[in-house]
């Protein structure tokens, strides 16, 4: 199988500041030399106790963070040092589902707007086409179309997580990074 | 899973519970203090774990039988701070394993012990046979 995501010797160190002038006094080595591949259509599980660097690794792989060292190749493109603009087409292919749906969904937006947002950012289709896609996605994750006009806080934790999933699926990505998706509750 | 077949999706799935990951993953990587300690396809991780940390995680999976007696490996101590990680094998250090000092200064990059089964080759935690 063709590798879709390749992470080579990834390091993610955060500066630790201290003293009166908050100079960097050390580094927090959250991820220290990790290599990993995910092939097309494959599911790779990443397990470890809290604080071992799993989420940091995922955020760096999705380039939400800039890695300290190492290389990230997605679908044949080296994305290690790309800037925000160059990363935009990549975001279509690589989506992330977050640990806490209550925190990652904007409470001021209706569910329809939340799911439509990635389509708007990537300028996909007309407004009517996008609305149709949102209705399809809602159905796909087991929510009714009328859910679209409500707000995320009106839903239970599991339903909110499904809103996050619908948003991640909106652009037909090739890879989804799921950060503890089963933790969602309330 | 159903979505995966429909869309031909790939996932990187993060969890701190091996029980869940077992059902969904093709391959599993075990991470400890910023490093991968063991990586293999899902079946060999469960049937033939090589690293002591993986074994401890597997023994922590709850069994759905209240009468079953489970011998759990309880871990002592806490994960060391990533600001000042111990030298050598971090897990052997936590367990104060008698052979931990041997891992200091060793090259602990993953070694393939069986086809597709990679593990950190430290003398204290890994069964390399």
What does it look like?
The complex is a heterodimer of chains A (186) and B (129). Chain A is of the alpha+beta class and 186 residues long. Chain A contains six helices and seven strands; from the N terminus they run βββαββαβααααβ. In chain A, the strands form two sheets. In chain A, strands 2-1-4-5 form a four-stranded antiparallel β-sheet. In chain A, strands 6-7 form a two-stranded parallel ribbon. In chain A, β1 (3-18) and β2 form a beta hairpin. In chain A, α4 (111-121) packs across α5 (127-140), α4 (111-121) packs parallel to α6 and α5 packs across α6. The radius of gyration of chain A is 18 Å and the shape is globular. Chain B is of the alpha+beta class and 129 residues long. Chain B contains six helices and five strands. Chain B has helices at residues 2-7, 18-24, 42-47, 52-59, 90-94, 100-103; strands at 10-15, 27-32, 35-41, 111-114, 117-119. A four-stranded antiparallel β-sheet of chain B has the order 2-3-5-4. In chain B, a hairpin with a 2-residue loop joins β2 and β3. Chain B is globular. Chains A and B meet through β1, β2, β3, α1 and β7 of A and α1, β1, α2, β2 and β3 of B.
How would you briefly describe this protein structure?
By secondary structure, chain A is an alpha+beta fold.
Summarize the amount of helix of chain A as a percent range.
Answer: 25-40%
Beta fraction of chain A: 25-35%
Report how far the terminal alpha carbons of chain A are from each other. 39 Å
Global mean pLDDT of chain A: 87
Order of helices and strands of chain A: EEEHEEHEHHHHE
Could you report the average pLDDT of chain B, rounded to the nearest whole number?
80
For the secondary structure, the number of strands of chain A is 7
Radius of gyration of chain B (Å): 16 Å
> Globular, elongated, flat, extended or rod-shaped: what is the shape of chain B?
globular
